[in-house]
């Protein structure tokens, strides 16, 4: 605009900020434009300090594609694990999820390793994707300093979904990692927060994908992956300016190629996977589970495998499991009391079954004991609808558990009395514990003192 422009009635050349070089010279700036004139202290020009020539739609979209495949799998395995806890019995946490209630069905007992795989994958994949999440955030960090943060109502909605997306994934990662380390620093119930946090994240992810999927496709097609991965550091150049402003306005020289950046993120993911997967593998592999101390091998011998809760932590002492210990069996109108000698006199069955913990570790051991269906038949409950198991454990969320009919009647479901040919140790539930195929480990109740078979008994 020239300096000799004749002002119109709406011009205000007397304004202190009026300038011939300023867009809209002479007119008052309102709304989004006025907001742009008043950035918070220290924010003006901050985004221009991020000068890496690697940033751009292509690298961001590569990270985004990996997360688009991996994160829904983490979410789905988490939902399956929630269902494995039996929400129909009120023993999945959180108990009350309102309209987020999932379809209820009897969790299967076959294959016996089902929960071992779903929970192990949920934890291991979640940890493995952490470097990819951080890489994606690094690639878009200049956008966090945009001012104004939005220039239209549509952008406000988009930024809100992005806030929930980023906040949701960081919250899920932080609480998940603290939980598997048994570092309960939350000040709130982990299970409830993690469940609802996952739904908030997924809702934001759906919105974000709907808004950005076309740009992701365009960005990935703009630079053939094979050709881009062949470019060395010296040949690395910025991408063309993009409408989202991911490309640096004043890029500096490359200190690493895009191939190197992807190799760094991928290498860190592989390292985390290597430090995690050992918790689900028996033998010497467990020594590699450095990030998950609960999944490491605590000892040697037939009972030297991991344990989630010790007898001391559960408040179960030698007096509770001594000669006076009895197992009480109940059903409608009938009751039986058995000591350890009586249980050992019953037909014994051996099965090789896993224990899988919510923290992601699992182990496969050989268990020997009395079939649960034989104990049910002893009190006339040939076809119980469920069984409620109580422990000697003094307190805790899992001092009791309810088993489905298929879990009671499975031929490998046991009240185990021995493992790997040896008596159970106190920490593994001596004198008797439940072992059921595909059941979460916390519901394989230890130090069992009572089983109530519910449903009409056999006449």
Summarize the structure.
The chain is α+β, with helices and mostly antiparallel strands and 459 residues long. The protein has helices at 31-36, 57-84, 114-128, 130-140, 153-180, 190-222, 225-229, 258-274, 311-314, 340-345, 372-378, 405-409, and strands at 327-331, 334-338, 349-356, 362-371, 386-391, 400-404, 414-419, 422-423, 433-435, 448-454.
Structure description:
It is a single chain. The N and C termini lie far apart (98 Å). The longest helix has 33 residues. By secondary structure, the chain is an alpha+beta fold. Helices cover 36% and strands 12% of the residues. The N terminus is likely disordered. A five-stranded mixed sheet has the order 2-1-10-5-6. Strands 3, 4, 7, 8 and 9 form a five-stranded antiparallel sheet that branches. It is built from twelve helices and ten strands. The chain has two domains: 218 residues, no CATH class; 144 residues, Alpha-Beta Complex (Sulfite Oxidase, Chain A, domain 2), CATH 3.90.420. Strand 3 and strand 4 form a beta hairpin.
Counting H and I runs of at least 4 residues, what is the number of helices? Answer: 12
Beta-strand content: 5-15%
How would you sum up the major sheet? 5 strands, mixed
Can you tell me the residue ranges where pLDDT is under 50 for at least 5 consecutive residues?
A: 1-27
What is the global morphology? elongated
Rg calc: 30 Å
The proportion of residues forming helix, as a percent range, comes to 25-40%
Order of helices and strands, N to C? HHHHHHHHHEEHEEHEEHEEEE
- How many individual domains? 2
Please give the oligomerization state of what you see.
single chain
Query: What's the number of extended β-strand segments?
Result: 10
From the N-terminal CA to the C-terminal CA, the straight-line distance is 98 Å
SSE class: alpha+beta
- Please list the strands of the largest sheet in the order they lie side by side: 2-1-10-5-6
Taking all residues together, what is the mean pLDDT?
A: 87
